[in-house]
Amino acid sequence: SKKQPCLPFTIQVIKLIHEQLDLSDPMSAAVFACLTTTFYTTARLGEFTTPSLTTYNPAIHPSIALVHTETDCNGLMSTIFKLPKTKSSPHGEDVLWSVQHGPSDPHFAWTNHLNINNPSPNQHIFAYQQNKGKITTMVPLTQKTFLTTINKALMAGGQQKMTGHSIRIGATLEYLLQGVPFDAMKVKGRWASDTFRIYLWKHTQILTPYMQAVPDTHTVLIHHTINMPPVR
């Protein structure tokens, strides 16, 4: 049987998750901050989570110390995250987001996470407080914990489970629908030119239904993908 394509995360999906989570809970606060940061930076989920509780390595995984803000000449602030090592760059890359409107705002989620969990500079960026009896420890956010929490919230809201890759697909879709040019999106998502075209082509089936409401963007998508070779 043919594998079903990943459904993209959308702003509405993030709002639904926001409604289902108790953001005063340390783990939920970290998970929601990770979700909104991964989404609005167009990052890979594995860049902001760890494989297990014991594999956090600040030389590979981002820490609190690697986050800073910058303000441009128009007074607009961006929060920048240094990823120490990535799939495409062993020397690391920067990703960023800006304040957004509504419950999906990554700035709100990030600030809430810091207030609830108060991770120290050398700890994992989404480390959260875990209580064991009378002892409270800080643990890194694993990909498994993230996905379990997100999918529990989705199912409680009457939605189907989603994958981590759905976040990157959804972020790409959201920015394109907002009118971000394809070339700018390629840079934000840290794709090489041909890689981005292949990525769009592979996900045309997913993106097209959403984009048809924005004819100009849909036309550009078709232009970018129409001459792609078949997948082997």
Automatic annotation (TrEMBL):
One of its GO terms (biological process) is DNA integration. Coiled coil: none annotated. One of its GO terms (molecular function) is DNA binding. Keywords: DNA recombination. The keyword Hydrolase does not apply. Transmembrane segments: none annotated. This is Tyr recombinase domain-containing protein.
